[in-house]
Specification:
about 210 residues; alpha+beta; Glutaredoxin; Glutathione S-transferase Yfyf (Class Pi), Chain A, domain 2; four-stranded mixed β-sheet; 8 helices
Length: about 210
């Protein structure tokens, strides 16, 4: 019997990406719902014992706790190899897979956060992403050269992360939407797992609102 898998989740947040990933994996999981906006449950001791940063997502898989969106993607895709969402060790695509998932966390997200906050890098050499335009050129150039998926013909957990990230950053006009990005996010969002996750997320949001009275 496989270990129980729980997602600590708040709807319409970064953990919605992990919800999509779980649907792509097709494995049983439970959702531990957190009301972050009204009740601040992510700041209560019970959850801080799971993630001291008070952030979502987090997962518990048996006795293992994993936080950080990209770390969760790496962990789950390897934990459930039958879903074929991660090139295995020895596969020529493994290096690119790791590179682009780490690039998302180490360069894309910091650049997006600074852009949204209006922060201008004083010293590009000290920034993990250099500057925003260079980072975005790298991302756009990769999308142009690859396709239909982030690793070419192979759909992977990298597409769940990048597809979701580019969807919300273009929605909020942080990343300019060009034809290549739109075509890519449309492909990712058209997958049945993405549709199922959106439906469940809305149901969970309604559950939260009902519980608030």
């Amino acid at each position: 019997m496989s270990a129980a898998l729980t997602l600590f989740h708040s709807p319409r947040t970064r953990s919605s990406t992990t919800l999509i990933l779980l649907e792509e994996l097709g494995v049983p999981y439970e959702v531990h719902l957190l009301d972050m906006m009204v009740k601040g449950e992510h700041r209560k001791p019970e959850y801080l014992a799971i993630n001291p940063m008070g952030k979502v997502p987090a997962i518990r898989h048996g006795d293992t706790i994993v936080t950080e969106q990209v770390a969760i993607a790496l962990y789950l895709a390897d934990a459930f190899p039958q879903a074929r969402l991660a090139p295995p060790i020895g596969d020529p695509l493994r290096g690119a897979y790791l590179r682009w998932l780490v690039f998302y966390a180490a360069a894309f997200e910091p650049a997006i956060a600074d852009k949204a906050a209006g922060v201008q890098a004083a010293n590009e050499a000290m920034m993990p992403y250099g500057n925003f335009d260079r980072m975005l050129d790298v991302v756009s150039g990769h999308l142009t050269a690859s396709g239909p998926w982030w690793l070419g013909e192979t759909f992977s957990a990298a597409d769940v992360i990048w597809g979701s990230g580019l969807t919300w950053t273009t929605m909020f006009k942080i990343v300019p939407e060009h034809a290549g990005i739109r075509a890519y996010t449309d492909r990712v969002n058209a997958r049945p797992a993405a549709a199922a996750a959106r439906k469940r997320d809305e149901a969970l949001q309604a559950q939260l609102e009902k519980a608030r009275g």
